[in-house]
UniProtKB/TrEMBL annotation:
Organism of derivation: Aedes aegypti
Domain Reverse transcriptase intervals: 771-1041
Region (Disordered), start-end ranges: 1-22, 39-63, 133-238
MF-aspect GO terms: catalytic activity
Chain intervals with Low complexity compositional bias: 139-149, 187-198
Protein name (database record): Putative pol-like protein
Amino acid sequence: GANVPDALPQPESLGRPRRLEGEMDEELLLLSVRCPAKTPGSQSPVGAVVSHSGTGGQPLALGEDLEEGNQASEPFFLDDVGGEGFEVIGTRRALPATPMDNVGSQALCLQTNAKSTKTSNFEALLPSSIPAGSFAMQPGHPGHPNPGGKSHPVNSFSGTLSSPNSMVPGVPVRHHMQRYPNPVETSPSPNAPSIPSSGFSETSLSDNRSQRIDSPSGLHGHFNPCDKSPSVISGLTTRPSETASLTTNVAAAAHSQHINLGGRSFLRQTSQNSSGTSSISRTSFPTPTLPKPITFLLQWNMIGFYNNLANLELLVHDTAPWCLALQEVNRVSVEQLNRSLRGQYRWTMLRGSNLRHSVALGVLTSIPFEVLRLDSDLPVVGIRLNGPIRVSVLNVYLPCGTLPNLRERIDRILEVIPGPTLFVGDMNAHHPIWGGHRSDARGIALQNIFEEHDLIVLNNGANTFFNGHTSSAIDVAAVSRSFANRFQWSVDSDMYGSDHHPIRIGSCASPPALARRPRWMYEKADWNEYTQSFRYLSRNHAPTNLTDLAKVIHNAAESSIPRTSNRRGRKALHWWTDDTRKAVKSRRKALRTVKRIPIGHPNKENAINLYRRRHMECKRIIADAKRASWENFLDSINPTQTSFDLWSKINALSGKRKATPLTLQIQGSDVSEPPAVAMALGEYFAKLAAIDSYSDFFKRRIQPTLSSVADFSVPDDHDNAPINNPFTLSELIFAIKCSTGKSAGPDGIGYPLIKNLPPSGKLQLLDLINKTWLTDTFPSEWSESLIIPIPKTNSDSRGPSKFQPVALTCCMSKVMERMVNRRLKQFLESHDLLDHRQHAFRAGHGTSTYFSQLGDVLHTAYSSGLHTKIVSLDLSKAFNRTWGPLVLRQLVEWNLSGHIMRFVQNFLQQRSFRVLVGDFLSDSYREETGVPQGSVIAVTLFLVAMNGVFSYLPSGIYVFVYADDILLVVSGKTPVRVRIKTQAAVNAVYKWASAVGFELSASKSVRCHVCPSNHRNPVPIMVNGAVIPNKKTVKVLGVTVDHGLTFRHHFDSVKQSCQTRLNIIRTISRPHRTNNRAVRFRVAQAIIDSRLTYGLELTCIALDRLVSTLAPVYHGYIRIISGLLPSTPADSSCVEAGLLPFRFFIYTAVCRKAAAITEKTSGDDRIFILSEACRILQSTANVDLPPVAKVHWYGDICWHSSKPNIDNAIANQFRAGDNSSFLRATVLDWLHNKYPCHEKRYTDGSLSNLGVGLGV
């Protein structure tokens, strides 16, 4: 081999070109570097090294002018040699050196020369510090025939080598091949398309793995990772007809040596042959990585959307293109498109004057975009992508026939849309530039349009249309010159039931990640193995604290429970079976047969007919498979399943089970990469929970006294209150039983792992919890939360503010919180410390008590002719602004002390969080204020913080509070008096909010005047100088209240929202095998009846309007389930179904809700719903509402109450259901001898000699 020096020559040593002497065979690998002239004295290290394996022959020169064949007078130098590089390695026939045209101001040409066709190994090492320009590799052949008698074609591949400052990693490798008419011809064809240089923005690499790219010449090229801003080959092009591969195989190096070149370290390796001598010496330069190519756009004329929907699902399933450009979608709506393909795409479409001319564009839900408004009568739609690739996409269908002024109409479209542009569609135009066999007027016009707007045609000449007899290229894709190197155009071999081939436009941009956090697969858990592993680990490594116990549980789970991957797998097509696979394969085989047979062959017509039969058979098999799959799904909805399974299937039908990446708009640009999204959300949430977010007034107020939670002094418990006693096993079991869900916290432990602990493990957990409780400590791991950002459904913002933070804390922490919270809530409720006007998160309270009291106040004022002002106040970020020391001070004022107070103090202090997006965790951020949303005890602490608002309000004001929602109701005889009282109430709430750290948002608050008359230009109500908007309606916990208490807007909204639910009922009511009507009625009652009766305690004020507006929904689903015609009378359909008509259904619901309210209250007859129930019973049955037993709600059983002593000896001795004489004799014997003083209590309602049994 050539004797390569031990180190590359340094700049100061490069006086004249150096010649590397060595024995060469008949083959010679030459490398030339062409650069612009250098100014005198500006020298840089040489940028290329070539080594070759062989014996004998010619020496190899470095820095030689290979094009002219003469040694250069001075070496060629390259700028910025410190940049990254790439290397090309492989095995190739030696071909003659041929000069090539200068394809750029700065170019690099790799050529081969030999006198024979003997195969040799070679490698070329090229630093990427070559300035931005073009490079080309052009192997040739002297024209000698190969053993098969055919000449070797001459291939060329050319492209752009971008500098680090003008390149985006992930620019695709675009392939192009120019086949020369004469194999011996040495210059490229003059018609070869030029390769523009790229102008992409700078981005950093995200992967350190090597990538393999295919290219057309049998060479193999490898792109390795680099350490800094890399250069990337962005213009390599090849034709599919040529098979070659650039690969990255390198012989194993036995010796490595680092070389310093231009301040950058490179690796030089030398391989050893069998005799131990060096055969190949090479220097490896750091090289960049190309992202894996993705399908950017799928273009297809599908001839009917529903006609070929199954084939479209096949196309989309494997590659999930970013965009779908479809032509001739025919009769379909945007709503139907959005529901198709599992809701993965958002669509925009245009229906032409002829339905066959309809076009549609779909974009993945994870890619932000905006619809372009195109003022054109052509069937064309456009979007502007705002994701990783910012480009305007136009989808057009130009029908056959004459289109007058086509050029002017397309010009007007291209002139108004922002560039760069990707223009695709079925043009029905012919031109050789995109592979047509002829030119027509439309093709020439399109070519002129493309040239005028600087668009490059991406087509490689392949035919896109085939009807069995003729084939042509009429589907065209053109892109702006600046983006020409970013896309690769290809045609699918199958037509998927259409007469157009699907066209894929690929790119190397990284799609938004859909990675997820790995989770435990509890359904595949081996719980016996888990129990044994836990016992073994706990014996050998006895945990001394809760952190050690968490590690033991986690290690036991790893050995017995599998985990999912962090990548979301593709969901299998529910109808894909062996039969459909064979049918699709048979159809493709028949199509290949048709294409192989030339036109005019006698078997051509038979092959076409065979393909048509196979196509129809494939459609039938797919339709049968889809029908069978759907029937299996409907059969799975049965009476034996749980409510959870039922709602899971209903949500699946509703399309609610979508997992889409998060996209944020940060500083005007859309960001979807999980690291950037997580960091942006983390910074935003940290600002919300920072002390600096409070007003200056509040910070000045708290500074002298309560600076932090840690500085708060908690009093000791000198009375040994029961609330501070150690926890019992029954409390732990109760807390574990109430813990639902499977999500794991930061420690990776979920509730199922705790629930399946052996008895010894639960005792260990209880002992360690009591140890933490009695020593007033708190594990540091429990202070960290994982924030899951949940998008707000009613927010139009695209910034971080549209997300609601929900915290995932350690599950063992939440088990202990649940035990503490149970004691704390029972203490607060038993001492009546929480105001009865707070209706949220309390036993015996809820929306029913809220609406019933509000309805009574509104109805009384309206029927009395009073003026009523309703003000809904919004507390901005209430959970984040909860000031911990004020909560502690309130609890101390309520005589709480000792362990429970120190637990709350430890829970609130030194908290931190990390944002979880997919499987990426952000940095840790301090949570200086607030309570974590998602923890158990945080809700109770928030209610304590909200309890002070009631003491600030003046008398005569009705206030209704549900968590952080505050509703003020003020009534009076004159509007002026009402406004004054309302302003005073608002000022009182503002004063309280300022004192505790909350902030009232005037823009999100609403006020509404309720009275029989209309009032114009009311006097404004102010909050801290801002006006509260005055509207005709106000939304209260989902119920819209209008100024006349007609609830017209609310009933219309409910009716509209039930249409989707009616579609679900209509869907599951289609004929199938089981066709269980009782199950369908159960589903309807769950998803429709609950919506119709929500807020009935309030909306029964307008009972007649409710019945007349919502009755069609109720009777509609009865007709659908019963299979009746829409014209069937309502009463008849209800009789056939065995259900009450809607009016009596509502009457029954009102009476039941009135009875439930009466149970929870003192039975005050002035409550409106109670009087309404009495009126209904009098009018329908001429009876009064019977007395309702009063229930005093005590809540859960107290933790320190005495437990019953239960003797289970008989239950353990006999089997359930045994009623033998021996059992009766044993029971009588025990009662007579062991328990002579006893009292019989029956739990089944059976009679005895002394009375009726009582169910307890």
